[in-house]
Amino acid sequence: MTTELLPSLFKRIEQAEKEAHEILSTHEASKSRIIFLEGLLREIRSMPVDVETYFQESIKCLEVGCIRAGMVLAWSGLFEILAERLYSDKEGEIRSVRPKWKFKDLAELKEQFPESQILDVGKEVGVVKKAHLKVLQGHLATRNQCAHPTVYLPSLNVGIGYVDELIAFTKLYIST
To answer: What is the pTM of this model?
Structure first.
């Protein structure tokens, strides 16, 4: 085969793969449904590279069947953006509403205080809306089930939905 035919052949292979994913993604348990999450990643290219990497790794975990690991990584990506937003926009207010909290920077804040308390203070200072707080608390509880020894074994569908929703929340905290 000549080298000038290779680019054309690769393009046809990529197109066939894309079409196969589109067809297979209509089946509920198909891993081809994950391809749509990759489309969401293109929408959040403006976030820091390390956070984008959390979501890329999360999707890779889903692809290979490591659903709990994928969900934990997705939470990490969301929480990093949320914590950065909270700290950069409301550090003074956090110190005001939590005078006993002693921290010198964002890293120390995240290290010293549980994520649930950081979510609560986020609501108190107006970064997290009341309705979002309940949803985020639920997602944190799910992340905890995935990250700690439990019998919780989420399905691929649950993992895809979880990652999809966390990407949507991440976009919300990046854009506002």
So the answer is: 0.79
